[in-house]
Write a structure and sequence with these properties.
The chain has 115 residues and is mostly helical. It has helices at 13-24, 31-47, 54-114, and strands spanning 2-5, 8-11. The chain is rod-shaped.
Length: 115
């Protein structure tokens, strides 16, 4: 019925439902029956609590971390490939522009010498 939170203990959703059921009920349920019903529901909700041991929790966290790292690696590979392609095309374009400028300089130098 009770869940531990940062602020302290609070009623679980199941506890809230049972509590509101008792409060809104047109029938008067004797306190002993309320207590036995609360214990029964409490036992049922206690079974749903995470009872994994700390090692299995750590293993699950490591698996989640591995999946995240692999996904990040794929994303980074994609970005790097895009950057490498940009570098290659930009380098080739600059190389071609430099070669064209050198040819233009040679052509203009010859033209100046002829004058």
């Amino acid at each position: 019925f009770w869940l531990k939170s940062e602020e302290g203990y609070r009623l679980s959703p199941l506890g809230q439902a049972v509590s509101s059921l008792f409060a809104r009920s047109a029938l008067r349920i004797p306190p002993a029956m309320q207590l036995s019903l609360a214990i029964l529901v409490g036992c049922a909700s206690a079974r749903s609590v995470d009872r994994r041991n700390p090692v299995s929790k750590v293993v699950d966290l490591l698996r989640e971390m591995q999946a995240k790292v692999e996904a990040d690696g794929k994303a980074e590979t994609k970005v790097y490939d895009k950057y490498a392609c940009w570098c290659a095309t930009t380098t080739q374009r600059k190389k071609d522009e430099i070669e064209a400028s050198k040819n233009e300089i040679a052509s203009l130098s010859n033209e100046i010498l002829e004058l």
